[in-house]
Amino acid sequence: MTIEYATRYRQASHIPSEPGKPYFIEKGEGDRAHLFGDLITIYAGGEQTENTFNFFTVEGPKGDLIPAHLHPDTHEVFYVTQGAVRLFVEDTEGNQQEKLLTPGDFGFVPKNCPHAYRMERYHSQVVGVAAGPGGTFERFFENLGAPAEQLGLPHQPVVPEPHKFAVVPERYDVRFLPGHQWQTR
């Protein structure tokens, strides 16, 4: 059993709100959010790391491409633990790549590089780490989507209200790229 804390984001969390405090989280007991068809679980965020990095998982069904976006100040890591995830990346010179990542595969996306991904198999899982001088973006998921108390994927996709796309991403170092085209398949 893990300890629960009250934070500025949630009434109950297994993540302490103040830095410098060791803690443990049992499987699946981090701060959860639903966004589109995915379950995002946060295990460590800016509050615990002095805004130097975060650690989270994204689980989802086989589905649509997550919209192209970039992080002006944040580097992002993709490490696949289940299923398969196709990662699309464009470097700062405009060169595009795509790679199918399967369990044990790793992808790195530097700051300012457009990227997107798509779950290619049912119930794929990615471990994510984001770090950079601009802080961390883990609270983006629950502010654009919805906090989730239960384990598991959402029963219905959680589609954000249009006005949230204008406010939430910028606050969390996420810039969507509407109309971005991938030259790869």
Automatic annotation (TrEMBL):
- Quote the EC number: 1.13.11.24
Keywords per UniProt: Oxidoreductase
Q: What molecular function does GO assign, one term?
A: quercetin 2,3-dioxygenase activity
Keyword Transmembrane helix attached:
no
Enzymatic class: oxidoreductase
Ranges for domain Cupin type-2: 60-118
Q: Which Pfam families does this entry report, sorted A to Z?
A: Cupin_2
Task: Please give the InterPro entries that the UniProt record associates with this protein.
Answer: Cupin_2 (IPR013096), QDO-like (IPR053146), RmlC-like_jellyroll (IPR014710), RmlC_Cupin_sf (IPR011051)
Q: What is this protein called?
A: Quercetin 2,3-dioxygenase
Q: Which organism is it from?
A: Streptomyces syringium
